[in-house]
Amino acid sequence: MDNIVYEIELAARGAGEIVRNAHGLDLGIENKEGRANFVTKYDTMVQDYLVNRLGKILPDARFLGEESGLDQFQSGADKGYLFVIDPIDGTTNFIHNMHPHVVSIGLFKDGVPWAGVVYAPATDELFSAQKGQGAYENGCRIHSSTRPLSENIMLVGSSGFSLEAYSISQKMAFEFQSKCQGIRSLGSSEYSLCMIASGRVGGYTEMRLGLWDFAAGSVILEEAGGTVTDFYRRPLTYREGCGIVALCKGIAQDPQMPDTGAYMTLWSQA
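Request: output the structure for the sequence above.
Response:
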C-alpha cells in the first residue's frame, strides 16, 4: 500500500502542475448551484487528469468527485476501493490567485478513509497519510497540537454558499473568539484540516461540506492525532456531505470547547 500512496502523491503533484500553470490564462469560470459557488475549466481538466492517472494505479477503483457528474455516492461504492477527488479545493481562492488552493485525493477502502493526499501547488506543500502509518508533510512526520483552546487559533469556515449558515457561523466564531487566540478562515477545507494536522492551528468548523471537501484531510488529521466529527461530535458516516468539527488532540479534550451542536440545531430551525 505504501507504493500506492507514493503513486497518488505523484498524481497530485502532476495535477498541481496543471493548476500552477493556469494563472494568466482564461480560467473559463462558471457558476454552479448555490451562492458564490464557482467552477473553472481547470477544475474539470484536473479531475479528468486524476481519474485517468489514478485509474491506472487501481484499475478496479471507483470514483467520486466534485465535477463532471461524479458527485453522487453510488450503491456499492462502500465495497473495495473508492477515490474521492476535489480537483481544486478553494476554487474561489484559485480564481483570485490567492492561497490556499489544493488538489485533494482521498482513497477509501470498504467505505472508510484509508489514505489521503493533499497538495498545495503554490507553496509546494504535500500532506499525506495512510491508515495506521502516521501523517506526513513533505516526508516529515507531523502531529496535531496538544495545547488547549486558549492557546490555539481556530478556523471557522464562512459557509458562503448559504447566507443563513454564514450568519450562524459568525455567531459561533464570536464564541470561539472569546476563548482562543484568534479566528481565521482560509477558504479551503482540505488545507484547513492539514493545518490542524501539522500543529499550526487548533481546530476548524464548517457547517456544510461535500464529501470530497474532507475525504483526504480527515485521514491525514486523524493519523496526526486529531479528530473529525459532525457538529454533534458524532463519528462521520462518509456517505455524503455534512458539517464537520475538526480538532487537535488538545482541544478535543478541552472542557472550554463550545457546544457546536447547538449551532447546527439553530441552523436547522432557521
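The two ends are 46 Å apart (CA to CA).
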